[in-house]
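Sequence, please.
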């Protein structure tokens, strides 16, 4: 992303900052986890250390996944341990959510799917402690800047993490309904997507953790 492009998107983002919702820069506390309301679900997602992940609302579009929704942005930067543990409110229950972007805290993108590219899609049922899976990034060979995203499931590893950090909810952990699906509608023209995202249109439905 060029310097001019960064400045352009940043300035527009400032104008629409109220659209981006509230920010949180850490996982929920053990006390918050144990006080799980009927209108909440806790999601547990393994992500690379020191990365930001964005998740969007969508619907099934045949065998693919279509991005849509109402913009809500929450921020979470993981500096250690490799797990995101967050509460999701009832407005997202039974939505088809999908991974839209993985980047460093300074927004250097490591993964960003577009039309025809696969991503991880899942549902959030009410009042659950839900393991989504692990998102992995790998550097192939000598190409230090190129990242490949992979998804894996290790429910027991996630449960062991909860037993250490969130012992009161570890026994409730269950596996989410997940699929890897191609996107059907996000432009691969990322300059245009960034511009619309800053205006709160292409980015509608994005939730970044």
């Amino acid at each position: 992303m060029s310097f001019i492009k960064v400045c352009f998107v940043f300035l527009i983002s400032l104008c629409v900052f109220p659209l981006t919702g509230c920010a949180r820069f850490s996982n929920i506390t053990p006390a918050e986890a144990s006080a799980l309301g009927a209108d909440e679900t806790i999601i547990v997602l393994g992500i690379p250390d020191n990365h930001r992940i964005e998740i969007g609302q969508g619907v099934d579009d045949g065998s693919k996944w279509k991005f849509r929704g109402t913009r809500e942005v929450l921020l979470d930067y993981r500096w250690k341990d490799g797990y995101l543990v967050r509460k999701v409110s009832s407005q997202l229950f039974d939505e088809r959510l999908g991974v839209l972007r993985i980047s460093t805290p300074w927004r250097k993108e490591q993964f960003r799917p577009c039309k025809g590219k696969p991503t991880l899609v899942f549902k959030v049922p009410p009042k659950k402690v839900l393991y989504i899976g692990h998102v992995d990034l790998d550097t192939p060979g000598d190409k230090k800047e190129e990242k490949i995203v992979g998804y894996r499931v290790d429910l027991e590893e996630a449960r062991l993490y909860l037993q250490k950090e969130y012992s009161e909810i570890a026994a409730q952990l269950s596996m989410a309904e997940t699929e890897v699906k191609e996107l059907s509608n996000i432009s691969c023209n990322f300059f245009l997507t960034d511009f619309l995202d800053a205006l709160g249109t292409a980015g509608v439905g994005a939730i970044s953790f």
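The chain has one domain: 3-208.
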